[in-house]
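Email to the structure team, subject: Putative glutamine amidotransferase model.

Hi all, the expression group asked for a predicted structure before they design truncation constructs. Nothing fancy, just the tokens so they can compare against earlier work. One-line instruction: predict Putative glutamine amidotransferase, return tokens.
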Amino acid sequence: MSMPVIGVTASRDDRGTLSVGKEYLESVLKAGGLPLIVPYVEDAESIRRIAERIDGLLLTGGGDIDPAWFGEEPIPGLGWIDPKRDHLEICLVRRMLEENKPILAICRGCQILNVAAGGDMFQDLYGQREGLLQHQQKAPRFHLSHSVEVAEGSLLHRIAGSSAIKVNSFHHQAVRKVAPGFIACATAKDGVIEGVESVRHPFVLGVQWHPEHLSATDDVSRRLFEAFVRAASSD
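Reply from the structure team: attached below.
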């Protein structure tokens, strides 16, 4: 059986150079998938063709998201945004949802998935919420920083095999209103949403943490990539 092709989104600097952390690519490869970095395109036809060619979509972490996508003005705590990345990823997510293809969305990807499907987000947690845990850990990226409660019966629960896990944490934005047709499948002790998933698709899942930095040592993170690639293989 051929390896499923996994489209992997990339960050872009102000010179137009694309970059993807090697951990994303290695995690997909170890799970049996073939990662393909998604080029920056803007026209609908190119986005449609990308969605047709890939078997699954991995939305990676990165900069902030333009609040215009959910009808808000920027607040002082909003960081660097890349409008072209937002446009590409939102259009590609919507196309993948239409085609019922698997999506695994990580950190920023979790937020962009929710916004693309009709939800919204906190532009800056620490400016908009009180009583928070530390969501930007001061520890190595492989460190399991805080605990997360996983909703029983969810796709994430079936993958994790537990209703309580520990995760790493590197974010200041987060899902606020969950998109229609989605549920919050993971929550931190302070109430911040740490995972969302579709109830209308077999495998559309976003997590707020970074499992790619944990997949070599953490069983839940490894199983997350394996389940994603397996879903892409069956399409």
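The longest strand covers residues 182-188. The two ends are 13 Å apart (CA to CA). Ping us if the truncation boundaries need rechecking.
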